[in-house]
Write a structure and sequence with these properties.
By secondary structure, the protein is mainly alpha-helical. It has one domain. 91% of the residues lie in helices and 0% in strands. The protein contains three helices and no strands. Helix 1 packs antiparallel against helix 2 and helix 2 packs antiparallel against helix 3. The longest helix is centred in the middle third of the chain and has 61 residues. It is elongated and about 95 Å long. The termini are far apart.
Length: 179
């Protein structure tokens, strides 16, 4: 029995692709919403803090009082900036990981479908089709290897970024405490 092209298969594939695209778009939108909320909160907090410091500076009577107020403001400002930076990083990397997982799932499904189709074609073709099947299998294996290498490189870059942010955070907190 030979399997022929079926419009139902095409409709199912397009529906799955659309659902996958919608999942990726929803994930990206959620990350944008989180970043917007974070930015608005940070802006609001910065404005309030600046207004308080300005009011304190206006009420200061000597340059020494102004200098003391400024030095007191450095540590909380540095800590707020570090927290903000960490939050941006967490939102961004969380969304990137979720999208990467969605894409990997789609990639795995495409691989499975390609292999199934290759086997179906091989079973339904005349003698000598083994060469074509071997070529398809080799192409799928090469694609898998390329994807794995890309995935490993992306993970290493994320780990390096995480380490650098941790170092920068530690350095900023130390610098703020030293002042």
């Amino acid at each position: 029995m030979t399997k022929q092209f079926n419009t139902d298969d095409l409709i199912a594939a397009n529906s799955a692709a659309l659902a996958h695209f919608q999942s990726v778009a929803n994930t990206a939108l959620a990350a944008v919403e989180s970043l917007a909320a974070l930015n608005l909160g940070f802006a609001r907090e910065s404005l309030e803090t600046s207004a308080k410091h300005a009011q304190s500076a206006i009420s200061a009577k000597t340059p020494q009082e102004i200098a003391a107020l400024q030095s007191q403001a450095v540590k909380p400002a540095a800590e707020t900036l570090v927290t903000y930076t960490r939050s941006v990083y967490e939102i961004s990397t969380g969304a990137a990981k979720e999208i990467a997982d969605l894409i990997k799932g789609q990639f795995d499904q495409l691989n499975k479908t390609a292999q199934e189709n290759a086997l179906t074609v091989a079973k339904n073709t005349p003698f000598g089709a083994d060469v074509a099947l071997a070529a398809v299998k080799q192409a799928v294996a090469a694609g898998n290897t390329a994807y794995e290498n890309f995935s490993k490189a992306t993970k290493q870059a994320a780990e390096l970024t995480e380490a650098n942010i941790t170092k920068a955070t530690t350095a900023a907190v130390r610098a703020a405490k030293a002042k």
